[in-house]
Write a structure and sequence with these properties.
The chain is 43% helix and 16% strand. The protein is of the alpha/beta class. Substrate binds at residue 316. Its cofactor is pyridoxal 5'-phosphate. Its EC number is 2.6.1.37.
Length: 348
């Protein structure tokens, strides 16, 4: 972050190419996909993928079981792209059999889009089964892997994903500011962009990288360098080891919070190591109660996600990043103290 490189300089071009290559190494897509970074948050890349690869004659099946699936539907609606939303409870994974029936009933679908790890509750959706269903029906698959890429097992070639979208500031553990799409080469080569926006035309972005090795517009050069370094560290740690580290953090948080009387809402076999959603009718019955609890944690330099999810009555605690055991112990201790929970429970 301390080294200032000019965005058109050959040294920065090398950083960009290295970042793109490392994304393919992490994803397993070296032979099948291309990586296309784009400036902005993950939603920028998600919208770029949607408006580039879906057109006015297409119809998208959007599978929703949380806030970020709803956001995909909002993007499509604002872009004037035809879609149908199939909604499931936020506490359950997307049902593959239901998607199969829907695809059989309507042969007009051209694309299927869903979130891999829906962090509304931390639930993991069955990515491979959903992609297989889409491919059987000839659908282009667009997967939001914002919170899962680098932390959960996923292989874009083996899993058959056409477009995967993610961001550097989740499991890659880079600063926010750069997102990316991993796109099947068959969509890129000879492909046609439907984007009406210059900035969000991710096909044009890819073509510029391939032809000139440059970003079309000025990128956040320091963030790109930090992103590249974070990818280096992810590859050094290994995907299996990073997943194992996140799982251990999840289990420690889960053990501590459930001992205090909080409950989770996601089936155990669908619970990600990305974040946990907790609720308690006794301790956090409503939004004011949560806000008071959150403010107390923040006053003690402990931070969790700052919103209560109305539909499930849950609040979220993240499991990713450089979280140490001492930080988890502090969270559990302050929570117990705030709600005046017996120390005998903590010792049990």
């Amino acid at each position: 972050m301390r080294l200032d490189l000019a965005s058109r300089d050959s040294a920065f071009k090398q950083v960009t190419q290295q970042l793109r290559d490392r994304l393919l190494l992490v994803s397993g897509g070296q032979a099948s996909h291309s990586s296309v970074p784009i400036q902005g948050s993950g939603t920028f890349a998600m919208e770029a993928a949607l408006v580039t690869f879906t057109g006015k004659r297409d119809k998208v099946l959007v599978c929703i079981n949380g806030i970020y699936g709803e956001r995909i539907a909002k993007i499509l609606a604002k872009s004037g792209i035809n879609f149908e939303a199939l909604r499931f409870p936020a506490t359950l994974p997307i049902d593959v059999a239901t998607i199969e029936r829907m695809a059989n009933l309507d042969e007009g679908f051209t694309h299927i889009c869903f979130v891999h790890c829906e962090t509304t509750t931390g639930i993991v959706n069955p990515v491979r089964s959903l992609v297989e269903t889409g491919r059987r029906h000839g659908l282009v698959t667009i997967v939001d892997a914002m919170s899962s890429f680098g932390g959960l097992p996923i292989d874009v070639e083996v899993d058959g994903i056409d477009v995967l979208v993610s961001s550097g500031n989740k499991c890659i553990e880079a600063p926010a500011g750069v997102a990316f799409a991993l796109i099947s080469n068959r969509l890129l080569v000879g492909g046609v962009s439907h984007a009406s926006s210059y900035c969000l035309d991710i096909l044009d972005q890819w073509q510029n990288f391939e032809q000139h090795g440059e970003w079309r517009t000025t990128p956040p050069t320091h963030v790109v360098q930090a992103f590249n370094k974070a990818l280096e560290e992810l590859l050094e740690e290994g995907l299996v080891s990073r997943n194992r580290r996140y799982c251990r953090i999840r289990d420690k948080i889960l053990s501590g919070m459930t001992a205090l009387g909080f409950e989770t809402v996601v089936p155990q076999d669908c619970q990600s190591p990305i974040c946990l959603a907790f609720r308690s009718a006794e301790f956090v019955p409503d939004k004011p109660a949560f806000e008071s609890y959150y403010d107390h944690l923040a006053a003690n330099d402990v931070y969790i996600y700052a919103k209560l999810h109305d539909q499930t009555g849950t609040f979220r605690i993240g499991c990713i990043g450089q979280i140490e055991d001492s930080g988890i112990d502090k969270l559990i201790g302050i929570t117990a103290e705030y709600f005046d929970i017996s120390h005998s429970i903590l010792a049990a």
